[in-house]
UniProtKB/TrEMBL annotation:
Species the sequence originates in: Salegentibacter salinarum
Gene3D superfamilies tied to this protein: Glycogen Phosphorylase B (3.40.50.2000)
Protein name: UDP-glycosyltransferase
Length: 340
């Protein structure tokens, strides 16, 4: 991998634990394992940047130029686009931060829904799912044949209130981690204490990688109380098109409906989801694809430069005359637009 040595990973904020923040950590960790020189950039330091510096030994941006910049948010790109080749990884369709930047050299969509969104905005992209560290998120403890413990990673009090009622009525133990109320870094430990996990998006992917059956459900402030329900071989290919956000099927569950989904619990589903995550969501595969994209694009650029040089030499133009010819051509182009 001689064409890339220095890599910058950029995320708008790293002060709190969330989906794009843990993704950034996983991405940096994987790049670090491959012995790249990696640095990070953020506007807001905090809990996650501290983990990046202390656990991974990665420092804040110190260079003027990088071979490759992997950026999650358009705010970062607007600041960094002169410092290197930028691949923007677009994680969503609603937030301003997730919108595609015209200053990025290449765009990645983490789901079919995001790719369709970018296409509507006239941005080409490649679909690569959200990467999970499948060594960090793995089954440390076997789930029970009969459901006994649920972990809710829902981010709304209304969703958690319903889940609490269900657990109380059915004599189930409940663990709750709402990132807006409690910041937990080692969430994998809580996942491994549970038999089933309820949440959306990256929370679902991390639970899948940990071999846990999942129910896709929450009530986020930017969306109605949507869900895709219990995830298994029958619906996973459809649900993942929308990043397991609940927006694929948009079921509006009553408490009774949610009970039905929860008690679809099956021990075998955990193994199926773990294998799916290893095959489709592993951060190692995602990093392979990012690097392949970069090298392919660099080769295209080199090919263009070679063809341009051949054209100039075939015309018998030396370096000095080439510059003069380009200046004359640019003057003609500018004159044309002035006349227009």
């Amino acid at each position: 991998m001689t064409d890339v040595q220095n890599i910058l990973v950029a995320t708008n904020q790293l002060n709190k634990i969330g989906g794009s923040e843990t993704f950034a950590f996983s991405l940096i960790e994987e790049l670090k394992k491959r012995e790249f020189v990696v640095e990070y950039f953020t506007f807001l330091k905090g809990a996650v940047s501290q983990q990046i510096e202390e656990k991974l030994g990665v420092q804040f941006m110190s260079r003027k130029k990088y071979d490759l910049i992997l950026a999650n948010h358009q705010t970062c790109i607007e600041l960094l686009f002169t410092r290197g080749y930028i691949i923007q990884i677009c994680h969503g369709i609603f937030p301003y931060l997730e919108q595609p930047s015209k200053y990025a050299d290449f765009h990645i969509a983490i789901s079919q829904e995001v790719q369709d969104h970018l296409k509507k905005k006239n941005f080409k992209s490649r679909k690569i799912y959200n990467g999970i560290d499948c060594e960090r998120f793995k089954p440390e403890k076997k789930i029970k044949p009969k459901l006994t413990t649920i972990l809710s990673l829902c981010q709304s009090n209304s969703a958690n209130a319903i889940i609490k009622e269900i657990c109380r009525e059915h004599n189930l133990s409940l663990l709750v981690i709402n990132k807006f109320e409690t910041q937990v870094w080692e969430v994998e430990k809580a996942i491994n204490k549970s038999d089933l996990v309820i949440g959306l998006g990256r929370s679902i992917y991390e639970a899948m990688a940990s071999g846990r059956p999942v129910v896709i459900y929450d009530h986020r402030p930017y969306s109605k109380s949507f869900g895709d329900g219990y995830l298994d071989a029958n619906n996973i290919k459809e649900s993942i098109k929308n990043n397991c956000s609940g927006r694929r099927f948009k079921f509006q569950f009553s408490k009774g409906d949610l009970v039905t989904e929860i008690f679809k619990y099956d021990l075998k589903t955990g193994d199926f989801l773990r294998n799916f995550a290893l095959k489709n969501l592993n951060i190692t595969s995602m990093v392979d694809e990012y690097l392949e994209i970069f090298l392919a694009e660099q080769e295209k650029n080199r090919g263009f430069k070679r063809d341009f040089r051949k054209l100039m030499y075939s015309m018998g133009i030396n370096k000095k005359k080439k510059v003069q010819a380009l200046k004359r051509q640019m003057a003609k182009i500018l004159a044309y637009f002035v006349r227009k």
